[in-house]
Amino acid sequence: MLQHSKSLSFWKNGLLLSGVAVLALFGRRAMPSGAQSAQADSAVFSSQPANVGDAKIAALAYHDSGAYDHDLNEVAEKAIGWIKSRSRQVARPALVLDIDETALSNWEILQRDDFGRPIPGPCEPASEAPCGWAAWDQLGIDPAIQPTLRVFQQARALGMAVFLLTGRPESQRSATERNLAAAGYAGYAKLYMVPDGAHFASAADFKAPIRAELEKMGYQIVANVGDQPSDLQGGHAERSFLLPDPFYRVP
Ligand SMILES: [Mg+2]
């Protein structure tokens, strides 16, 4: 009997505790909308990634506040300091630069496309309509990223060979060469582009073997500069410099 009473008491207490838990749960859900309510709801979706709309707002603010330029300058100054100290100690020093969001800025199309990256489709420069990136590249109107241009100019002044290494296809060569010249990149040794029709799972699969090839040719790659980790992965550079780019990802 005593045992039964204990069990009953335990059962009753358990029911009471369960009831409190249910009330707490429903009470929390019944709260008016607000920070506390949103916090409780979001806990249900703990695996939910960052909101894309919020990320776009943050990316725009990062650019427009001047923080992006600040960070570009900071990386460029580090690269300039390094090549100044190192290039004279090396027989055939080389600098490798990526193009998009490294040597040249696509900020206009990034805004037009609301941070999307459609490759096909037309691009009308006179309008503000969204653009296909392939058509945009063929316009050849990207401005230089000035901090990178300073790295380039410093490398040339030091007598370094500069190689441009891009994921853009060969079909964009003449537009890209014209764009680089107009943006102030004069006197680079060679522009490496992806053969038309070739596909790589990662940009590193294309870029790292070309850096290895440059080493076999006798160059010592003192610095490699890019805006994507895949520009820098795979080695074959003494030091790598990653520029800020919260706008898109190239695997
Ligand atoms: Mg890039």
What do you see in this structure?
With 251 residues, this protein is of the alpha/beta class. It has 2 domains: 43 residues, no CATH class; 141 residues, HAD superfamily/HAD-like (Rossmann fold). The chain is built from 10 helices and 5 strands, in the order ααααβαααβαβαβαβ. A 5-stranded parallel beta sheet has the order 3-2-1-4-5, sandwiched between helices. Helix 4 runs parallel beside helix 7. The N terminus is likely disordered. Bound molecules: magnesium ion. Magnesium ion (MG) binds next to loops.
Order of helices and strands: HHHHEHHHEHEHEHE
Shape: globular
What share of residues is helical?
40-55%
Roughly how many Å apart are the termini? 70 Å
Task: Classify the fold: give the CATH topology of the largest domain.
Answer: Rossmann fold
Return the domain count.
2
Cofactors, ions and other ligands in the entry: magnesium ion
Architecture (CATH level 2) name of the largest domain: 3-Layer(aba) Sandwich
In what order do the strands lie side by side in the largest sheet? 3-2-1-4-5
What oligomeric assembly is this protein in? Answer: single chain
User: From the alpha-carbon coordinates, what is the Rg to the nearest angstrom?
Assistant: 27 Å
The helix-and-strand class reads alpha/beta
| Contiguous uncertain segments of 5+ residues | 1-35
What is the strand content? 5-15%
Number of strands: 5
The CATH class of the largest domain turns out to be Alpha Beta
- Tally of separate helices: 10
Kindly report the average pLDDT value: 87
Could you give a short account of the major beta sheet?
5 strands, parallel
- What name goes with the CATH superfamily of the largest domain? HAD superfamily/HAD-like
